[in-house]
Design goal:
The complex is a heterodimer. By secondary structure, chain A is mainly β. Chain A contains no helices and eleven strands. In chain A, strands 2, 4, 5, 9, 10 and 11 form a six-stranded mixed sheet that branches. A five-stranded antiparallel sheet of chain A has the order 1-3-8-7-6, with no helix packed on it. In chain A, strand 4 and strand 5 form a beta hairpin. In chain B, the strands form two sheets. In chain B, strands 2, 4, 5, 6, 9, 10 and 11 form a seven-stranded mixed sheet that branches. In chain B, strand 5 and strand 6 form a beta hairpin. Classes of the chains: A mainly beta, B mainly beta. The interface between A and B is medium-sized, with 24 and 26 residues.
């Protein structure tokens, strides 16, 4: 069974204080690992897809990296508007056209001004 | 691009009634859509995979006779919660996959908050 564990559950930062969120996963062959941002009462917003170990992707203050067992979401000099829950999800290979995602519980990030 | 909408955004209903939620892909055609449920402070749990023109595939533990899914066109899937009860109160979110090189990425709708009294 595919599993995704995110840590920490909650993270409080001061504006400008860089940090990283962790996503550990076990999957029977990885097709892709996804990062989403979710604001309260809203649906998840797509951020990144990573496919293979060593891959990195960046978007503004966010950078996602991938190893064979985990992914990190690095947040550089965060701003209050980066406050949200960040979700990690994996998609297993070998599922044919079944692209189902298994989500972690997320990390609630709060950035104080 | 890759915009997904849901309607309604929230609904309150009495126990025993049925509620229909619509999920639309606005700028692309989606042969596959997904329905998730999210309880407070929990992650998204996949309920079912909806395929255009065929029966939905339900995850283990999800009652297919209670959560009816119809994917009648390439831009619309509906979820009907039949005979809703208070324990069905939750945040229901759909997602859709665009075709082509982004086909593995799911784009999510804004969600529908359901409260059953």
């Amino acid at each position: 069974e595919d599993q995704v564990t995110q840590s920490p559950e909650a993270l409080r930062l001061q504006e400008g204080e860089s940090s990283s969120l962790n996503c550990s996963y076990t999957v029977s062959g990885l097709r892709g690992l996804f990062w989403y941002r979710q604001d309260p009462g809203k649906g998840p917003e797509f951020l990144f897809t990573l496919y293979s170990a060593g891959e990195e992707k960046e978007k503004e203050r966010l950078k996602a990296t991938l190893t064979k067992k985990e992914s990190f979401l690095h947040i550089t000099a965060p701003k209050p508007e980066d406050s949200a829950t960040y979700l990690c999800a994996v998609q297993a290979a070998g599922g044919g056209s079944n692209y189902k995602l298994t989500f972690g519980k997320g990390t609630l990030l709060t950035v104080n001004p | 691009g890759a915009v997904v909408s849901q309607h309604p955004s929230w609904v309150i209903c009495k126990s025993g009634t049925s509620v229909k939620i619509e999920c639309r892909s606005l700028d692309f055609q989606a042969t596959t859509m997904f329905w998730y449920r999210q309880f407070p402070k929990q992650s998204l749990m996949l309920m079912a995979t909806s395929n255009e023109g065929s029966k939905a595939t339900y995850e283990q533990g999800v009652e297919k006779d209670k959560f009816l899914i119809n994917h009648a066109s390439l831009t619309l899937s509906t979820l009907t919660v039949t005979s809703a009860h208070p324990e069905d109160s939750s945040f229901y979110i759909c997602s859709a996959q665009p075709p082509g090189q982004l086909q593995e990425t799911q784009y999510f709708g804004p969600g529908t908050r359901l409260l059953v009294l």
